[in-house]
Amino acid sequence: MKNSVLYVVSTPIGNLEDITFRALDVLRKVDLIACEDTRKSRILLERWEISTKLMSLHRFSESRKTQVILERLEQGENVAIISDAGTPAISDPGSRLVRAVLEAGFTVTPIPGASSITAALAVSGMDCSSFVYLGFAPRTDGRRRGFFDKIRQEERTSLFFETAKRVQATLEVAKEILGDRRLVLARELTKLHEEIIPGTAASILALFETRASVKGEIVVVVEGGSGSGPQIDVREAVGLLLAEGLSGKRLAEEAHKRYGLRKSDAYEAFLMIKDGNTSAGRSTSLH
Q: What are the distances in angstroms from CA 131 to CA 118, 126, 178, 179, 238?
């Protein structure tokens, strides 16, 4: 390994006090801090009187800036990467840089800290011995349906992010597909207006409908199910997959993998829907 180090530093997810002594020490001592947004990161650095030089590195510039950072490391400098909140490379830029630095033979060191994922799980009251993190919920209705159908069959606790702008549309689909499955919605974690809302998709949606608006960053935790799930009609399953943009043999394979349907049944239903025939197949249990 070469001597220079890339530090992957976790920063607060809201409250600026939620940063470790070690993180502050690293940010003061490195030669350069690569950050998602210099304006947001400067607020944190000014709060802790850190004057280290900042360089922007976001999803549009990560490829180009990675080469710049590699050159700085080659010159013997140490670099830290931070994101706007939480840990870089977790739904934020950074993974491409980390991979390139590792492949170049430099040391990569994590400086752990605040995490909205573990914070939300900790206050959910659900079994967190095993869980699945799903990133941001899809934006379109068809993909949302496929997304929640997977969650419906998931035996582990599931967790995903959503924006305030889209959360009500997402909860509408969750209400339809997840039914009375227990949810916990965590909003504005560690911030002044932090809110932890337990319930179902329907009850949380009803609460939001009484408000003029919903604001802030949102994490949703969903309790695991039995894994067997209810029965699903072949046409219904094929319709969900068509809405995701799948077709033909690929659709049939996904229907078998996701719903336990026979490929021949799914492909036949696909052809019938494609040809405009409304008399579709049979119901089959999910396995």
A: 10, 10, 17, 20, 28
Name the nearest CA neighbour of 6 among 88, 96, 106: 106
In whole angstroms, give the CA distance from residue 120 to residue 195. Answer: 11
Beta pairing, strands 79-82 & 54-56: unpaired
**Domains of the chain and any CATH numbers:** 5-114 (3.40.1010.10), 117-222 (3.30.950.10), 232-284 (no CATH)
Report the alpha-carbon distance of residue 85 to residue 14 in Å, rounded.
Answer: 7
Q: What is residue 55's three-state secondary structure? A: strand
Angle at 213 between CA 146 and CA 126, to 5 degrees: 50
pLDDT in tens, 68-90: 999 999 999 999 999 999 999 98
Locate 96 and state its tokens: 């491409």
